[in-house]
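Incident review: delayed structure delivery

Summary: a single-chain prediction request sat in the queue longer than the usual turnaround. Root cause was a stuck worker, restarted by the on-call engineer. No data loss occurred. The affected request and its eventual output are reproduced below so the record is complete for anyone auditing the incident later.

Affected input:
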Amino acid sequence: MEKLIITAALTGAEVTREQQPALPITPDEIAEAAYECYKAGASIVHIHARENDGTPTQSYEVYKEIKEKIEAKCNIIFQPSTGGATWHTPEQRLQPVELSPEMATLSAGTCNFGEDVFMNSEEYMEKFAKRMQELGVKPEIEVFERGMIDNATRLVKKGLINGNLHFDFVLGVPGACPGHPEDLMYMVNKIPAGSTWTVAGIGRHETPLAAMGILLGGHVRVGFEDNVYYSRGVRAKSNAELVERVARLAKELGREVATPDEAREILGLAKK
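Output delivered after worker restart:
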């Protein structure tokens, strides 16, 4: 079984300091959180940028500052979000891709997202995939519902995604696919042969699905974007604490954790 890639999703676009006092917001705070997660075993850091007042932003300049500050600390894989907040325009959402990161997320369909709707029309998906292809950015295909796998394979048939696919199953979002074990098994069995995948369990689903991801040969995402608690009613002290638990679980289950360069090899990225 290949080594485990741990992704740390540090901030998201919805979590507030009221919900999680340790939430990193400024570029300096996000870079420091990324470094702590790197030391804990993460090889990818998934980034949503914020203004200093906590407002979600897709600003090219803010992402650039975050990217540079992280790269000054460690060689973890910088993976910006093109999802942003549900109210960002497609043009705003696409701005971080202009930094030519090694990877970026590509949401593969529209779904209910709590009280909102996360809109990803075929036009949006094709535009995002084409720009990533032009800049040599590997898409991490974000899947919130089963049909999004088919949307992704259509992008492949249209020549807009090249190479082996990498999926991120985001399970347990209110309004989208639940986060039960059978939901993950179903998703894993429907992706094209040769694909790699990560699972991100929302809220209480985070740790059980992380354990499944380790055992099934997939990869795991944890962090405040998905879950602010360490256990029932107990807030996590940091994103790194959530990464440390996954690394510890992997060790107990006999699976080694990948370094950033090993993750690059698994995902087909060029070493930095």
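Verification: The mean pLDDT is 96.
Action items: add queue-age alerting; document worker restart procedure.
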